[in-house]
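ARCHIVE CARD
Drawer: 12
Card no.: 0347
Subject: one protein chain, sequence and derived structure
Cross-reference: see card 0346
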Amino acid sequence: MELKTDLSKFNNDWYKKGGTSFKRIAWYSANAIFLNSAFPNSDFKVFLLRLFGAKVGKNVKIKPFVNIKYPWKLIVGDNVWIGERVWIDNLGIVTLKDNSCVSQGAMLLCGNHHYKKVAFDLIVGNITIEEGAWVGAMCVVCPGVRVGNHTVLTVNSVATANLLPWGIYQGNPAVKIKDRVIKG
């Protein structure tokens, strides 16, 4: 007999969202009003993230329509840019190190499902975007991935595994196409 997916068996009670129910509801409201909206003030967005437990450095720029699931699972360094319509689905810890950039429409996805399991079990992995790395527009970074120091993930690419430092990666799944060289 061949087994089939049975979503009635799905159970993620083991997963800890963090924060009280009140805190999560308050965050969902603040996120909808101030981050995932046309609200333009980046400094106030940073203030809100810190208020809800995010660790955020200085000179961070957050564009409109950014969606962040759990700020208490977010670590942002100095001089970080987060572009329009970025979706940080941080079921795990997401770390954006100094001088990194996540461009328009990119998705950082810490959660996935185990498609070989009957219950379609939840899988969670942390994501780290290292110093000076750039996640291009419309890219996807999957659970457990580390985007290396000064690496570029080019437009519309999908990182399913770690990307080594100083590389330029492209495609689905992303593969290294050349070295990154920064000129003065």
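Annotation on reverse: DSSP finds two helices and 19 strands in the chain. The domain at 20-177 is CATH 2.160.10.10 (UDP N-Acetylglucosamine Acyltransferase; domain 1).
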